[in-house]
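queue> holo job accepted (guanosine-5'-monophosphate)
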Amino acid sequence: MARRKKIYEGKAKILYEGPEPGTIVQYFKDDATAFNAEKRATIDGKGVLNNRLSEFFMTGLNGIGVPTHFIKRLNMREQLVRAVEIIPIEIVVRNTAAGSISKRLGIPEGTALPRPIVEFYYKDDDLGDPIVSEEHIIAFQWASQQDLDDMVALALRVNDFMSGVMLSVGIKLVDFKIEVGRVFEGDYQRLIVADEISPDSCRLWDIKTGQKLDKDVFRRDLGNLADAYTEVAQRLGVLPKNATPMTKPTLIN
Ligand code: 5GP
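queue> job finished
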């Protein structure tokens, strides 16, 4: 069997060269990290759940005309995606105060924000992904003004879609992070949603109880992370309702 070429290994995923030019195979690991990888663990089944959940969200986005890198799921842990030139900026959209905005600005967690707030973070592990302004992004040529306008538009459309989908299953979308990448099509280039959308990169709170169903369960030692992600997947119909939270999830094909 031919060995695949590994392009990149990150904290939660491995990227391999895809079968066609311009494609990549994205493999979801069970590794969980937090606080810039100071806290680490292996959570059985997390990669399988995130593969399915990211497929679910990206397919939904593609369906309403929000372009993403997702092509198709290949198996339990892998999906085929378009190769992109990644923009080195994490885009965070917040609907409710939590996490770093609460710490930085002293806004109590759970405070509804007056409007969705879009923030940018420079992707650099050594620097701990610092928050940056549009001025920094333009001045240091991480992206152009046109890219920035497109990034905000994409992020707000993802927010509208994700908020609605989660609300329909009794979950509040508190905030999330996306990454975008550039693709070239003939004489044109455009930005599309890349990386993953999963409970690793969102804050999800049960609307009635406030129970956390995202990576904060791991960051803050609030229980079993795979159970929380299984709950999200079950509510969205990605897992059968009668599947018990478990380390090796049973998936609907
Ligand atoms: P905060 O800035 O409050 O730590 O994070 C805001 C939101 O973006 C949270 O939903 C968090 O999960 C997500 N986020 C921020 N940075 C990262 C990152 O480097 N990796 C992942 N997976 N999510 C992130």
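queue> Residues 90, 92, 99-101, 129, 175-177, 200-203, 215 surround guanosine-5'-monophosphate (CB under 6 Å).
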